From TrEMBL:
It comes from Elysia crispata (lettuce slug). One of its GO terms (cellular component) is extracellular space. InterPro entries: Alkaline_phosphatase_core_sf, DUF229. PANTHER family: FI08016P-RELATED, FI21235P1. It comes from the Eukaryota. This is DUF229 domain containing protein.
Length: 573
């Protein structure tokens, strides 16, 4: 992540002859004035699995105001001089099946009067980066609308899926069936217990929409879905727009990619204002590599929220804005502040005004919990309350997930919340000399583990050796179970205390180091058992903290899972 820069939105100069509004297709006013006798054909665009799409037979010479029959389509228009314009368009079309989905719901399964949930998620946005880069959005969301923000929300693993699986299924990835590409017996995720399945049974319209198909969380290193997982699903559209020539890297025709993504989110409310909704729209490519790119979306995000709020579309909706984690790469990530920001993403909630009046204790607990240790598992339990709310009260600290409508005990530790020491932001790591004998052994264990992952592909991947140690820390087991009390204005921990009953059988080392060839930077937590004198490293406690880009291209189609550890031999000079 680079230093703060405000980036203006791109100027998308491609001409689009059609526009979409509330499920209908119209000729652009400007085009009418410039071209005569325009005729347009509508090619419905449909999903064919997660990696292909198709166009149906065209509907020829559509009238102005044509009612869409699909959410996505290719429009081919010609004027009297046979000048042709081709565009790929998106919108939300109306269908009776979607409109009547609530008719089949069991009212006994609904909590909070069947309130909707709508989530806008942004990749790699820490709490502090959100404050710096989305100032207009945050000012309107928090200061004007009085949204509630979590100040101590801690991730439980590496990357986006380590947030999505706990948040949407209540499970870690390794607690679910194998779904990674290249693994024997790996399955698609159709049968996984995603919340949207339960929401659909309860009469909710559902969405999972991501703007970049290549890096989509459930497709980048996983097998995706055989069947379309939700009612609204933008993957085929964003695959198709790569067909057309764009006037800029963030443009889709005459619109920015981010504007299209936000417009589609808005249009679900416009076309289906009365239906219950569980919407999750997550954008990757505007903030994953450089948070500054998100500044170009700031005004658009605020304006969409403002439009929905002032139009009373959020009267029965919980609106959530979130980041999945902080920045994971670049020089900033190698600093202490960068380490903290990776582990503490942004999370904010906007409830309709009536909710606090009807459920005052639930909102009181949520406000209390903004200063308590929370995780994606808590979000899962919170969403479950929308099926069956069993009251506010105090949460059970023995459970790793606690609904945010219950008060989370102040005594909750990372151990209680099932946060491994590598990811816990509450720990008091002590500096240790890299020349310390145990630290050197810990470092070697980390290096051996990383090389072990690439050993089956040694013809492609170089053996990595130590280049230099950037940081070395040590943590006794008793310190690993510190109790959390809060964060300071910089997103760091300001007060902790220990559970003195824990024995020091395990000592943790956290090493940040670079390797050669290739200059990879890793942050690894190593457990040292003082009884057996064994050093152990778990893959979920290894972080690659600088970009690897094309350095691992030779392994991409053989084993995507080890890209972070592989430096291709043909890269060597």
């Amino acid at each position: 992540m680079s230093s703060l820069r405000i980036i203006p939105p791109p100027k998308c100069t491609s001409e689009e002859w059609l526009r979409v509004d509330r499920g209908h297709v119209y000729l652009s006013t400007e085009v009418r004035e410039k071209h005569l006798n325009i005729t347009c054909d509508y090619f419905p665009l449909y999903r064919v699995g997660d990696y292909h799409y198709k166009y149906s037979e065209p509907i020829q010479n559509i009238p102005d105001g044509f009612e869409m029959v699909s959410d996505f389509f290719k429009g081919v228009c010609r004027d009297i001089k046979n000048l042709t314009n081709i565009g790929i368009y998106s919108g939300v079309h109306y269908s009776d099946d979607r409109a009547k989905i609530s008719d089949n719901a069991d009212p006994l399964t609904l909590g909070f009067q069947g309130m909707s949930i709508a989530i806008l998620g942004f990749d790699s946005m820490s709490r502090m980066s959100w404050h710096r880069r989305l100032r207009e959005t945050r000012s309107y969301f928090k200061d004007t609308l009085k949204a509630i923000e979590l100040e101590s929300h801690n991730i439980v693993g590496d990357g986006t899926t380590a947030v999505m699986f706990p948040m949407l299924t209540g499970k870690f990835e390794w607690e679910l069936p194998e779904c990674r590409t290249g693994f024997q017996n790996a399955t698609t995720m159709d049968t996984f217990p995603f919340l949207w399945h339960e929401m659909k049974k309860a009469g909710y319209l559902t969405s999972w929409c991501n703007a970049e198909p290549k890096s989509a969380p459930f497709n980048w290193r996983m097998r995706g879905f055989s069947q379309q997982p939700t009612d609204f699903y933008t993957r085929p559209y964003f695959m198709a727009v790569k067909e057309i020539q764009s006037s800029g890297p963030n443009c889709v025709g005459a619109r920015t990619k981010s504007r299209m993504w936000l417009d589609y989110f808005r249009d679900v409310f416009l076309v289906y204002p009365q239906q219950r909704k569980f919407l999750f729209h997550f954008i990757t490519d505007f903030s994953h590599d450089d948070n500054n790119l998100l500044t170009m979306m700031d005004a658009d995000i605020k304006n969409v929220i403002k439009f929905l709020y002032e139009g009373n579309y959020l009267n029965n909706t919980l609106l959530i804005l979130m980041g999945d984690h902080g920045a994971r790469y670049a020089n900033f990530r190698s600093t202490y502040s960068g380490k903290m920001e990776e582990r503490l993403p942004y999370f904010g909630f906007l409830f309709p005004p009536w909710f606090e009046k009807k459920y005052p204790q639930a909102i009181k607990n949520l406000r209390t919990n903004t200063q308590r240790l929370t995780t994606p598992f808590d979000l899962y339990e919170t969403f479950k309350d929308f099926f069956h709310f069993d009251g506010a009260g105090v949460g059970d600290v023995s459970k790793r997930g606690i609904s945010l409508f219950k008060e989370i005990p102040l005594s909750r530790s990372c151990q209680d919340a099932d946060i491994a020491p590598h990811w816990c932001a509450c720990l008091d790591w002590k500096d240790v000399s890299p020349s310390d004998q145990e630290a050197k052994k810990a470092l070697q264990a980390a290096l051996d583990t990383i090389n072990g992952y690439t050993a089956p592909y040694r013809d492609d991947c170089a053996t990595l050796s130590l280049h230099n140690v950037i940081m070395a820390k040590k943590l006794a087991a008793s310190d690993a179970f510190l109790k959390f009390e809060g964060t300071d204005s910089n997103g760091g921990i300001y007060k902790i205390f220990m559970n003195s009953n824990t024995k020091n059988e395990i000592i943790y080392y956290q090493m940040v180091f670079s390797t050669q060839p290739g200059g990879a930077n890793f942050e690894v937590t190593i457990a040292f058992n003082t009884i057996t004198t064994n050093f152990t490293v778990s893959e979920n406690q290894i972080s690659r903290i600088n970009k690897y880009g094309s350095d691992s291209a030779c392994i991409f189609h053989k084993n995507k899972q080890i890209r972070a550890y592989c430096y291709c031999k043909y890269n060597r000079r």
